[in-house]
């Protein structure tokens, strides 16, 4: 017989898996942890250091409230304000795909590839399902611009990737290292 604590844990896990399987937006968190997706007609990317650097072997550490969460909340608030005012962008809703840099330039670079996935042509002609059914591909949203990356080193690395796909970026820090190397929105 299960103790009440164990029974609650089992119930919680079942509820979580049911929610993940039934909600495709949430299920993407399995494949893209530390991300937020907001549906919209036009999608902006966001890169913020929500977590500190992790210990060796893990990309992310503790949550950074002031430099990470607050910046993420500021972007979400701005989206809410813009989307709530019909005079600013009539009949257009701004969406977002916000990713965590984990305060690492290499992790930010890896995450930034998510923003250009929709712009890369994929050859799926050799993909087959064992059941014989045609494969279902979820097309990633097209990101038109990226906000964030608070450190100069992160901004420079991300800007180099985004520039290849003609995606504009913005930088939170006005360091001497990025001037002239990043197209600013």
Which terms summarize this structure?
single chain; 185 residues; alpha/beta; Rossmann fold; two-stranded antiparallel ribbon; 7 strands; disordered C terminus; ANF_lig-bd_rcpt
Total helices: the number is 5
- Secondary structure tally: strands: 7
Number of domains: 1
Radius of gyration: 19 Å
Low-confidence stretches at least 5 residues in length (pLDDT < 50)? Answer: 1-31, 176-185
**Largest pleated sheet:** 5 strands, mixed
Q: What is the CATH architecture descriptor?
A: 3-Layer(aba) Sandwich
CATH topology group: Rossmann fold
Q: Which structural class best describes the helix and strand composition?
A: alpha/beta
Written as H for each helix and E for each strand, in order along the chain, the element string is HHEEEEHEHEHE
Provide the CATH top-level class. Answer: Alpha Beta
Report the average pLDDT across residues. 72
Strand order in the sheet with the most strands: 1-5-2-6-7
Keywords: Glycoprotein, Membrane, Receptor, Signal, Transmembrane, Transmembrane helix
Membrane topology: Multi-pass membrane protein
Pfam family, one: ANF_receptor
Subcellular location: Membrane
Can you put this structure into words, describing what you see?
The chain has 185 residues and is of the alpha/beta class. Helices cover 39% and strands 18% of the residues. It contains 5 helices and 7 strands, in the order H-H-E-E-E-E-H-E-H-E-H-E. The chain has helices spanning 4-22, 24-31, 65-84, 105-116, 152-164; strands at residues 35-38, 42-48, 51-53, 60-63, 94-100, 143-148, 168-169. The strands form 2 sheets. It has a 5-stranded mixed sheet with strand order 1-5-2-6-7, with helices on both faces. A two-stranded antiparallel sheet has the order 3-4. Helix 1 (4-22) packs across helix 2 and helix 4 (105-116) runs parallel beside helix 5. The longest helix is centred in the middle third of the chain and has 20 residues, at 65-84. The N and C termini lie far apart (61 Å). Mean pLDDT is 72; it is low at 1-31 and 176-185. It is a multi-pass membrane protein. One of its GO terms (cellular component) is membrane.
């Amino acid at each position: 017989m299960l103790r009440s604590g164990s029974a609650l844990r089992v119930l919680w896990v079942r509820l979580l898996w049911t929610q993940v399987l039934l909600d495709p937006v949430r299920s993407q968190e399995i494949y893209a942890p530390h991300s937020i997706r907001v549906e919209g007609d036009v999608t902006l990317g966001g890169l913020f250091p929500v977590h500190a650097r992790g210990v060796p072997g893990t990309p992310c550490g503790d949550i950074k409230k002031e430099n990470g969460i607050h910046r993420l909340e500021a972007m979400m608030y701005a989206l809410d304000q813009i989307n709530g005012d019909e005079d600013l962008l009539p009949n257009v809703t701004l969406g977002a795909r916000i990713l965590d840099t984990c305060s690492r330039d290499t992790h930010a670079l890896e995450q930034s590839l998510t923003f250009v996935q929709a712009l890369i042509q994929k050859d799926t002609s050799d993909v087959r399902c064992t059941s014989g059914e045609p494969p279902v591909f979820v097309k990633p949203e097209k990101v038109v611009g990226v906000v964030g990356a608070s450190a100069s080193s992160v901004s420079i690395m991300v800007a180099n990737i985004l520039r290849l796909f003609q995606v504009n970026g913005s930088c939170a820090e006005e360091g001497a290292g990025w001037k002239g190397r990043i197209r600013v929105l």
